[in-house]
Amino acid sequence: MKAAARLQLIKDEWANSSLAEKDDALVYNRKLWTILVTSATSAESELPQEIKNNIATLGLFVFKQTITIMSTDDETKLGTIININRSIAEGLRS
User: Fold this and answer.
1) SS3 state at 41
2) How many domains, in total, are found in the chain?
């Protein structure tokens, strides 16, 4: 939820945010996703293979979206990442 909140703030303040602020929020989110994907897909993970595959696919999507946002300076793609983060966080809570 923290990553989603940081991304939402950047999205809401895109025009007034510095490149460093945007980069910080996106890097934080990328690190979070790197940890999630690495942990969930490891051989030690007891998750079913289908869930491992789904998390890996979502992770790749998030990474690609992040690169697109950074290279095109297009905040419209942040909404999708924010929604994915919120959905994953809600799922982990239950």
Assistant:
1) helix
2) 1
